[in-house]
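tokens incoming
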């Protein structure tokens, strides 16, 4: 968990090997001051744990779940089938198909079971953390302010560095 406050976001992944991608979601949540919890919850190896986690998430105070998975990538959809909370799916790059299999598995949910699908890998995990913070920010002014400050910082970086050359002064 990120702090002493109760977690608002659950960050789960199908395997410990997914951490190098999912840590980017956690980093964004930490940057924006969002309390979270993180753990491995495998759709295939621990289905009972998955169901218990998803069914109890709302009553534990979670507001959104970020679920990362590779390969068959069933975790986000199975979690979404067991909770009324928003679920954000992060496709983790697989060895054989470079994450396309994960992306399609998460994106191709049947009508009625919604999963917000993000980009493959680091960018998707980073944006999942940001989107989760935006969702939490609907009810938490401090988090909303942190998101707005992050956006302003991004804008200022571009405005401060309009020349795309590595070192325009050297030419």
């Amino acid at each position: 968990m990120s702090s002493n406050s109760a977690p608002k976001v659950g960050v789960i992944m199908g395997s410990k090997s997914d951490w190098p991608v999912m840590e980017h979601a956690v980093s964004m949540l930490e940057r924006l001051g969002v309390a979270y919890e993180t753990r491995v919850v495998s759709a295939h190896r621990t289905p009972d744990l998955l169901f218990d986690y998803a069914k109890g998430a709302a009553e534990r105070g979670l507001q959104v779940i970020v679920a990362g998975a590779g390969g068959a990538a069933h975790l986000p959809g199975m979690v979404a089938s067991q909770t009324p909370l928003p679920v954000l799916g992060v496709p983790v790059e697989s060895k054989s198909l470079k994450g396309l299999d994960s992306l399609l598995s998460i994106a191709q949910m049947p009508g009625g079971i919604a999963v917000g699908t993000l980009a493959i890998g680091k960018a998707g995990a980073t944006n999942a953390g940001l989107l989760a913070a935006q969702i939490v920010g609907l009810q938490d002014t401090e988090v909303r302010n942190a998101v707005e400050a992050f956006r302003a910082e991004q804008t200022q970086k571009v405005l401060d560095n309009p020349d795309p050359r590595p070192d325009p002064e050297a030419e």
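note: Residues 10 and 93 are 21 Å apart (CA to CA).
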